[in-house]
Write a structure and sequence with these properties.
The complex is a heterodimer of chains A (83) and B (394). In chain A, helix 1 runs antiparallel to helix 3. Chain A has five helices and no strands. Chain A is mainly alpha-helical and 83 residues long. Chain B is of the alpha+beta class. Chain B has three domains: 109 residues, Orthogonal Bundle (Butyryl-Coa Dehydrogenase, subunit A, domain 1), CATH 1.10.540.10; 103 residues, Butyryl-CoA Dehydrogenase, subunit A, domain 2; 167 residues, Butyryl-CoA Dehydrogenase, subunit A, domain 3. In chain B, the strands form three sheets. In chain B, strands 1-4-5-8 form a four-stranded mixed β-sheet, covered by helices on one side. In chain B, strands 2-3-7-6 form a four-stranded antiparallel β-sheet, with no helix packed on it. Chain B starts with 6 loop residues before the first helix and ends with a helix. The chains are: A mainly alpha (83), B alpha+beta (394). Chains A and B meet through helix 1 and helix 3 of A and helix 7, helix 9 and helix 11 of B.
Chain lengths: 83, 394
Amino acid sequence: MKAAKSRIKNFLAQYFGDRELQDDENIFALGFVNSMFAMQLVLFIEKEFEITIENEDLDLENFKSINAMVNLLDRKTTVVAGN
Amino acid sequence: MNLELTTQQKQAQSEFKAFVNEEIIPHANQYDRQEHTPNELIEKLAQKGYLGAALPKDKGGRGMDAIAFGLLNEEIGRGCSSLRSLLTVHNMVSQALLKWGNRFQKENWLPKLASGEVIAAFALSEPNVGSDAKSIETTATRAENFYILNGQKKWITYGQIADVFLVFAQNEGKPTAFLLEKNSPGLTIKPIFGMLGTRASMLAELHLNGCKIPLENLVCRQGFGFSHVASSALDYGRYSVAWGCVGIAQACLEACIQYTNQRQQFGVYLKEHQLIQQMIAEMLVNIKASRLLCYQAGYLRDNGDPKSIMETSIAKYFASITATKTANKAVQIHGANGCSSEYSVQRYLRDAKIMEIIEGSNQIQQITIAEYGYQEYLFSPNLPVISQELTARI
């Protein structure tokens, strides 16, 4: 999951510039994102980690921070593996 | 890198061209004058599978890739921008449901949308709300077993004939998406006439007065109506419009090539005059540049690349400007004839102007494209050399 964390950080860097994002920092509270960001984030996660973000995954709690996204990936990949 | 269409895409393109040449172009000016699209034409579009063009085959669609879907939009746009806008809004709703609909919505609606049994429209804009879409004033209030919608939607493309609307409303202050069927109690649909362009696209106002819809018509989740449902639909819409603009500009070019090859002034054909050649050259180059931007956006979309969203925005921005500039030149080249309803170029110019406004005005595109530029050049982890120098200055 360390690799996932760094890939997410890399992606977010283009939106948050030289600000060093903390793993638990709420990215929505920072206010840097525009209306395109939400869908760009969905596409990034889907392509980068080969999963599908579905209706039931859409909870800001799942996307609010780097750690939250890593936890979501963890849960989704565990479910896929379990299936 | 290979910029050549596949055999399948070339075959699809030939099929689209033939359909547009036979079924649309001979009648498009009449539809424009009458401000009406006949049902028979929409049925023909449905029979060809074009209304379900981008839906997967297991949902009853034709399962086209993004490039083939783009080519379809270019060709329909070359014939009639109103009809292309039907393709746009219908596919926007289909794609939003495919991505964010629940299982019942996908199973119930997608096959009907794919076959054209049901026509869908996208209902976001309101009398007081255009670009600032998050500020919609329509409300959805939860009652016992239904939502109650109150408010007004405006400029709804094909709203006069749509069977179902993807409508956006504030639910407990959070933008949320719902499916609204045309026979819902409390819904009144009023046609809009007298628009500048895409006059056959049968626009309507929706008046929602205590309009009751079932709870299962909620699309996605509360609060995600704008950020995810509308955003993904609008992204799809921009892709469709971008290609439609290439089609308008192509139609202008073809009209001008023909006209300047037949009409003489000062004893020579118009095509011999160098100022005409200048206009033809600019038209040709801008069309090719627009089409390449559309191809790039389509390629990224087929790869699920997050950059596809902004590259689509860039393609739509450039192609809509190209359509307007090209149509303006086409009218100029045609002179008084170009201002007459006997020639199609006046329709192309009126339609092209609409493209600079819909699915995000060009000013909104400029803002987001500029932000993308700063992200790309200042903040990207893989900075090109020029950006490293720029970064060093801040």
